[in-house]
Design goal:
Length: 65
């Protein structure tokens, strides 16, 4: 049995959505609102990295954002 299924069964999608939501809120909250929009490339990279790091705890990764 896979680790993902063993830990979350069919509830993994809900868990991932919750993880992504909390990470996005945290990362976006750390940015100055003007800087976030003016430097969208780096803002997107920071979001992707933070999401990927959180999802790796649950045997997944963020491929695109």
């Amino acid at each position: 049995m896979g680790k993902l299924y063993g830990e979350f069964q069919l509830g993994y999608e809900t868990r991932f959505i919750s993880y992504v939501d909390s990470v996005v809120r945290k990362v976006v909250g750390d940015f100055n609102s003007t800087a976030f929009w003016n430097d969208r490339a780096n803002s997107g990279k920071a979001l992707k990295q933070a999401i990927d790091l959180k999802l790796q705890e649950s045997y997944a990764n963020c491929m695109n954002l």
